[in-house]
Amino acid sequence: MKELLGILRVFEDGRYERIEVHTIVPAGIDPSTGVNSKDAVYSRETNKSARLYLPKTATPNHKLPLLIFYHGGGFVDESPFDTTYNDFLNLVVADSNVIAVSVDYRLAPEFPVPIAHEDSWEAIKWVAQHANGKGPEPWLNEYADLQNIFLAGDSAGGNLTHNMAVRVGLDTPAGLRFRGAILLHPYFWGTERVGTEADWMSPGLIDSVNELLALAYPGRSGMDDPLINPAMDPRIAGILCSKILLCVSGNDFMRDRTRNYKTLIENCGWKGNVEVVEDNEESHVFFLKKPTSKNAVTLRNRISAFINSA
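RE: above sequence
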């Protein structure tokens, strides 16, 4: 038996189990922020839902920016209904005064990549059903400014955010306008080491990332599949939004990948602007683990400023 990145236990007979036990919480009014939430099915075919969040300041006559959020978990774990992500979205929505759609997508290995990406796209198409103000979800009809949309996600959700930003550049759903993308410690990978990875990454860590990805994406074209390694995707110059907020942590095992993404995106011909936030002493997705810490609060303030400066 081996453990992969603290996410999966994999047994010699091929069985696997998720390590972390999650606490699922119901939607409703959060007592600390006043943010209200509810769940809505975005795909009848797959029966997948999203959790919607509405700040207490919302009024029907004042449209708010829309944040479409994708959770992390290496494509194999986590949920928008878990207390960790529910608490985080309550804070982000309260701080940024946005309406949010936190997307549940099918997880590997049961549903291997690119199913997570297809579900993520289905959620965007569902949002587009509200462009005429007559969609199935009243909150989106009444409160969401669909000309002011932001994509966001952490870790694997950061990967989904990037890939959705590329996809909307190729096929923008009618009635939607995407203003920016927020990549929080995004999960990218590749065959070749980048930055300083060769200096500090142990063979064991590299093998764990490789093995986890092989479980999540068994049909991949190697570790350099364009969905995983953006350097191999010739379409990235077509990212539709005009700005990206890229968040890095100094003790994150993905830090060199994130910094390399900045270089890649600036040199690919894309005409937008990349803003980088670095927390030198923090680890991967620290803002989920320590939501009240000074650096987590500062990061949420940067997210708010990024959204509301559009």
